[in-house]
């Protein structure tokens, strides 16, 4: 008996897989458990937040001034 025959995990794209994903996406606890089992951690996800003070202080150095007349 091969490992594929023993597995209870449905193949991607099947109706059962889609139903399972819909259920997982509806429950944050299940989503977190699934992500951890696939190797994703909270720190590996993209996070958006307010820019840091260092970023705001150096914005002009990074992107340059928008209007040259403001410098004069």
Label this structure with key terms.
single chain, 72 residues, mainly alpha, 5 helices, 50% helix, elongated
Notes on the protein architecture:
The protein is 50% helix and 0% strand. With 72 residues, it is mostly helical. It has one domain (3-70). It is elongated, with a radius of gyration of 23 Å. The mean pLDDT is 79.
Q: Main β-sheet: number of strands, strand sense, barrel status?
A: none
Low-pLDDT sequence parts = none
What is the molecular shape? elongated
What is the terminal-to-terminal distance?
Answer: 79 Å
Share of β-strand residues: under 5%
SS element count, helices: 5
Structural class determined from secondary elements: mainly alpha
Give the averaged pLDDT, no decimals: 79
Strands, count: 0
The helicity comes to: 40-55%
Total number of distinct structural domains: 1
Rg, nearest Å: 23 Å
Q: What is the N-to-C order of secondary-structure elements (H for helix, E for strand)?
A: HHHHH
Summarize the structure.
50% of the residues lie in helices and 0% in strands. The protein has helices spanning 3-6, 15-26, 28-37, 53-57, 59-63.
Ordered list of secondary-structure elements with their pairings:
Elements: H1 3-6, H2 15-26, H3 28-37, H4 53-57, H5 59-63
Helix pairs in contact: 2-3
